[in-house]
Amino acid sequence: MTTHHDDEMLCGRYLCVFRLGAFLALMGAVICLASCSTTGPEAGNTRQTGDEEAVQSPGVAVPKEDLEPLPGFVLRHNLGPDGKPRPGPMQESADWRISDFYGKGKVRVEDGVLYLEEGNDMTGVTWRGPLVRKDYEITLEAMRVDGSDFFCGLTFPVGPDPCSLILGGWGGSLVGLSSIDYEDAANNITARINHFDNGRWYRVRLRVYGEKIEAWLDDQQIVEVVTTDRKIGIRWEVEPSAPLGIATWRTTGAIRNMRLTALTETPFDYMAPK
Q1: Distance (Å, rounded) from C-alpha 166 to C-alpha 191?
Q2: Burial letters 112-147, b for 16+ CB under 10 A, else e
Q3: Residues contacting residue 186 through CB under 8 Å, at least 6 positions apart
Q4: Are β-strands 75-77 and 107-110 bridged in parallel, bridged antiparallel, or unpaired?
Q5: Which residues constitute the domain of residue 72?
Q6: The whole model's pTM is what?
C-alpha cells in the first residue's frame, strides 16, 4: 500500500528523469549544430565534383543572374561569345557581378581598380561573360590594402571543376591551391609561406594548360601541379565565386589590369607532364 507521500516522491522522480532527458536532448542538438558548422578558413569542408556530393553554400541560393552588376572593372580577353579564342585585338568586357557572400563588404571601382572591402567573412566578384575552361592564362595585379588574411582568392575553371589560388591566407602568409585531393591550400602539396606587405602591388600569373596548373607571383613560380588522377575542387565558402571570380577574407584587397588569354599555341616555357 502506497501513501500520498510515496506518490509525491514517485512523481518527483519521474519529473527529474523527464527534465534530465530534455536537457540531454537539447545538449545533443547544440553539439550537432556546432559540429556541422564552419567558422573560417580552418574549417575543412570543400566542394568536389565527381563521386563526392557537393557541399552547398548558403550564398548560392540567389541565382547569379539576379546579382548586382559591377560596371567599371574591365577584363581584357581574346574570347568570342562562345568562349573560343578570337583572333585580333583583345576584347574589353565589364560583365562582372557582386558575389552573393553573406556579410560581404563594399565593392567599388575607382580609376579602373577593383576594391573589395573587408567583410564578415568574404567579399568578391563573379565573372558572367564568355569563359574558357582549359588552355588559358590569367594575369592580374593584386594588393592587400588592409587586413591580415587573403587579399586575392582567384577561383578559376579546370575543365568542369573549379579551383582557387589563395594568396595570403590562414593569417596572412599562406599561398596555395584549394582544393587538391580534398585538401585545402594549408594542407596539400601546393602549400607554401610567402610574406606579403600591405600597400604593395603583386603581379600574379595563373596558367591552366594540358594536365597542369601553374602560378607565378612576380617572377617566382609558386605552383606547379599535374592534375592527372587528382580531385580538383573548392571550399564551400567560395561557391559564389565559381566558375571564375575573385574574393577576399576579412581583408580589403585591390585588383587591377586583369587579363584572360586563351592559349592557341603551346607556351614556350611549358613542359608536359611525364
Answers
A1: 10
A2: ebbbbbbbebbbbbbbbbbbbbebbbbbbebbbbeb
A3: 41, 42, 169, 170, 174, 176
A4: unpaired
A5: 46-262
A6: 0.77
DSSP, collapsed to helix, strand or coil, labels residue 39 as coil
| 135 and 228 co-located in one domain | yes
Total residues belonging to the chain? 274
How far is 171 from 33, CA to CA, in rounded Å?
26
Pairing mode, strands 161-169 and 91-93: unpaired
Query: Please, which residues have CB within 8 angstroms of residue 211's CB and are 6 or more apart in sequence?
Result: 226, 227, 228, 272, 273
Cβ neighbours for 225, distance < 8 A, ≥ 6 positions apart: 177, 180, 189, 190, 212, 213, 214
Whether residues 52 and 25 fall in one domain? no
Helix (H, G, I), strand (E, B) or coil at 88: coil
Query: What CA–CA distance (Å, rounded) separates 132 from 147?
Result: 32
Which three cell numbers, joined as nine digits, stand for 271? 613542359
Cell numbers standing for residue 88: 585580333
pLDDT digit string, tens, across residues 96-153 = 999 999 999 999 999 999 999 999 999 999 999 999 999 999 999 999 999 999 999 9
